[in-house]
Each structure stands twice: as C-alpha cells, then as structure tokens.
C-alpha cells in the first residue's frame, strides 16, 4: 500500500496537469497510431537515409526489422562521455544479432560545469539543456526510427535528452549510461585541499595534483553530484535497465548492459512484441518516484529545476511544494559525498540502488504499478545484473545493507526526512539542500553582505572582510540575468568561514550544484533580482533569517520591501565565450521554479 502522502501528492499532480497532460497524450497516441514511421516516407527519402548503412541497407529497405535511432553526447574532452565512443559499434552489432538495425541519428553537445566553473562559459550551462533537447529533436525528426537509444550522463545532458524523448513520446526510449570512473583519492581529501588553497595555505601545484588524482580516468565524477543524481533518476523513473547506473566504463558487464539495452529497445519498439512508448513510462507516478529517489539519496539541488522542466515536456506540472511534501515523508537512506565520505562506487558496492529501491517499495514510498522499459512494475528494479558463463542474467539484489555507514534501511535512516527543503517568506521562494548541513547550522539569522558576482565574494574573503556572522547574498545570477551559473566555487570560502566558528549562509537567485553541502544555502530564489524580486532590494547590513527547519526565508529588517529594487547594468553578460548567441534565451527563459526553460 502506497503511503497516503505519496498518493495525495500524486493525485494533486494528476489533477493539476489534466489540461496539459491529456492533450499531450492524445498527440502521442495519434502519432503511435500511424505505425512505423518509415512506411510513410517516400522511396527517395528512405534511400537517402539508408545510403551509408552498408550491411544494414537491405533490412532497412524491406522494413522488416526495428531501426534504432542513437542520440549520443559523445566527446572525448569530458571523462563522463568519452566511453560513448565505443557504443555505436556495440549497439549496431547487438541490433543485427537481434534482427534489427541501428543508426546514429545525431549528436548533442555535452559541457562540463566542472570545467567552466567560475568562468563566463558557465553562463551557457543551463541553456545547454534546451539546446540538447532541440539538437536531439533534429536528429529524430528524420522519422525513420522505431525506437531511440539516448547516450548521455551529466548535468544538463540527461534532462535535455528526456525533454527530447518526450517530444517524440510515441517512440520507446532507452537511456544507456557510461558509468562512474573508478575511485581516486577520496572526495573528502580533495575538498580539504580546495579549502587549504582558498585559505592561501598551499599553492596551485598542490591543488592541481589533488584534482588530477581525483579526476583520473574515463567515467562520471565519483561524488554524488548532478550527473550521478541523473543516473539514479533514470532507474527510479524506469528509463534505465535495472542496475545499469553505476557499473564502471569499459568493463564486460557495462558492455553487456549496452547490448541488453539495445535488445530491449527492439523488443519494446512498434515492431517488437512489447510496444512501450516513453510517454507511458514517464507518467505522473514515475516523476513522483524520481522525486522520492532524490530525497532518499540526498541528490543534487539542480534537479529541482530539471525535474520540473522534464515533467512539463510531457504535460505534467510539478511545483516545489510537491518536492517539500514528499521530502517530509521520505527518509534519507544514503550518505554519499558530499553528504558523507563514500563515493558512488562505495554506494554501489554497499547495495546501491537495488537495495534502496527495495527498501522504499517495502515502506510504501514508491509507486510499484508503473511501466518501465524493463516491463511492468518497479519491483523489477530490485534485481541486479550479473555476467555468468551462460551470459547476462539478473539476480535478486541485496536484502540487507552491506555497509550501514553508507546505506541504511528505511526503518533506521540517517535522518527521518529527505535532503531537500523548500524555503518561502518575504524574500521570495527558494530551496536548500540540508542532507549534509549539521542541525546547528540549519538556521542562520545575520546581517547580509550583498555582491553581484562570486569573484567579489572571494576578493572580500581574501581581504579579510568577513569577521562576524554573515549571510552572503549573491544576486543577479538568475536565468534572465546571466543564464543562472553555478556558484560552486564559493563552497570552500564559505566552508572556511564556518570552520572558524562564524554563522554563515548563502542566499542567491543563482544555483549551487550537486556538490554543495555543508553550508546552509538558499538558492534558486524567485523572483530573481532582474525581475525586481525582493533580493534586489537588500542592502549591506539588512538582517535575514534562513531557517531550513521551518522552511523560512524571511527579511527581518523593516521597510526593505518599500524600497525600489537595484537595477544593474547587465550588458557585460552579453558577449564573449559564446554568450552573444544566447540573447534570445535570456529574454525568453522562464523562472527557476517553473523549470527555467526556453522551449
């Protein structure tokens, strides 16, 4: 029996979404009723599509087998996406063995917030999600595919691919991950080195050595940031094969999962025996399951934006109140860095998603009755893959945690509620991630220091200007102002101040990231400063209260709201590092609480 709050929130989402979800599903059913798409193309059009298909030309021309369109985020500059170089050949061979075909339909950009952190390029990051969705749409628009395989991992890539998949919701869609890199130096050790560098205690050579020891090979970064939160979500929402998320790259099991994913895509295509369009997988219940997974694992705050945008692409309307109410009944079952010392490889070894999903199902905190790419029901995701002499198999996942410092049963969680909290009050609406914030740091009332970029905060820190309790306000960082870059490079500075005994918090209309943690941060504040939100009316010395326990974001100083908002010259955000190309995005983008989407 599903928990009453899970049922109530789901019913509310269904009712709220009725006017948009119904027409969306009608469009998808109409597209599905047309049957396999290639049959509707001219012979000339088909010949163009098959001209370079080599040994697959005959199968494609006779339309006797399913054809898979591959959308890939491959590039060899980013560790998480480099393993995808091998995937198309593996997929083509697997498709042929199963009686089908596969073609690379198109590529999408994949940028790394870790590389662009603190630079102008970071201002393109959030917008890249919509570019990815549009680029994937272009690839699939040729209309010669019976199913799609999506190859992507990191921060904006998976959300963008999900948005695209929903635009082609009549097609089955299987998401194939590349997996995390093997463990390097611990994430905690890396963080300590960063804090020492921020404090001027070590030089850049020592910092570089630590970073290279942490990020040392192909695969996703091993901390539990946005990229690995994405992978968790794809299992919780039924778009991955069970157990696919955290198998390391270039291993026999990873290759076997890619082969199995290809085979399954053909099975659930219009020409297969188990037609399963993605519009049926990504239901209201699937999104609720994803939000529960986000809370139970202490996942990335970025998904409070991405999940809203992903849902809206399928006519489902989520809001932050849904997240908050689900957090109140979802226990935190995982401690993965930055919420603990373990990395995702340790998490996977301790029982991983299969143990966690089983615990949540048994506690009535997940909808079991959902459609997935693996079949009907979330109970399929209790099982984990293995390779035996006889080939690829599934076995029942662990019934007990193998390390209770990393994974806990629902009956004995790390904390009784989820790791994310909605904040609201006279300053507006925002969110905070509290799974890594100690209880004594979860409420801060202090004077503010107001800044308009993160470099100014770091300069003030280096000048020794922070000597007492402070709430650092960084404004004009919202989607309309400059694309809403992450402010993750402030984490070492704020952590150092907190370590000195100061009460510290961050308030911003920008983003932090899945890597944020120990310092209380009120982020995604709406309305943003450029829209004249209350955050634009603050002055140095005004007193704010950020209360993650009560969910409050309150201006204590009187008469602040009566002031005129500060208006800032933002022309410097319009040029350089490709920003010139995104002027329309900055003008069209929606607010963070509605998904910060331009499409």
Computed CA radius of gyration, to the nearest angstrom: 24 Å
Range of strand content: 5-15%
- Given the helix and strand composition, which structural class is it? alpha/beta
Strand order of the largest sheet: 9-10-14-13-12-11-15-16
As for the number of domains, it is 2
Low-confidence stretches: none
By DSSP (H or I, 4+ residues per run), the number of helices equals: 21
Shape: globular
The rounded distance between the terminal residues' Cα atoms is 38 Å
- Tell me the major beta sheet: 8 strands, mixed
Mean pLDDT: 93
Total DSSP E strands: 16
Amount of helix = 25-40%
Brief description of this entry?
The protein is of the alpha/beta class and 599 residues long. The chain has 21 helices and 16 strands.
